[in-house]
Write a structure and sequence with these properties.
By secondary structure, this protein is mainly alpha-helical. Helix content is 64%, strand content 0%. The protein has one domain. It is built from 4 helices and no strands. Helix 1 crosses helix 2, helix 1 packs across helix 3 and helix 2 crosses helix 3.
C-alpha cells in the first residue's frame, strides 16, 4: 500500500476499526479472531461505501485486511518482516 490514495483509505479504515474495537472492549493483541472479524467487516463496508461515495478505492481487499490487522493487532510496518521466515534480524536506527 504505497500510494497516497491507498494510504488515505487504510487510514480511514484503521480509524473505524480502532473505534469498533474500543466500543467492543477488545484487546486486539489477545483477541485476534474477533479483531480479524471486525477488520474484515470494516474493509467490506468501506469497499461498498467507496464505490458510492467517491472515497479512495482499494485495489486489493485482502492486502488491505492484512495491512489493517497488522496496524491494530501487530507491529504495523514491521509485521511483514516478523512473519517472513527468511528474515533473521531487524535493525532499527531511528524514526524515519
Amino acid at each position: 500500500m504505497a500510494t497516497g490514495v491507498a494510504e488515505d483509505a487504510i487510514g480511514l479504515i484503521e480509524a473505524d476499526v480502532r473505534e469498533q474495537i474500543r466500543r467492543a472492549g477488545l484487546d486486539p493483541l489477545h483477541e485476534v479472531e474477533p479483531t480479524r472479524q471486525i477488520v474484515a467487516s470494516v474493509v467490506s463496508d468501506y469497499d461498498v461505501r467507496s464505490a458510492r461515495a467517491g472515497l479512495p478505492r482499494l485495489q486489493d481487499l485482502e492486502a488491505a485486511r492484512k495491512t489493517v490487522l497488522d496496524l491494530v493487532a501487530g507491529y504495523g510496518p514491521l509485521q511483514p518482516y516478523l512473519d517472513d521466515p527468511e528474515v533473521e534480524e531487524i535493525w532499527i536506527n531511528g524514526p524515519a
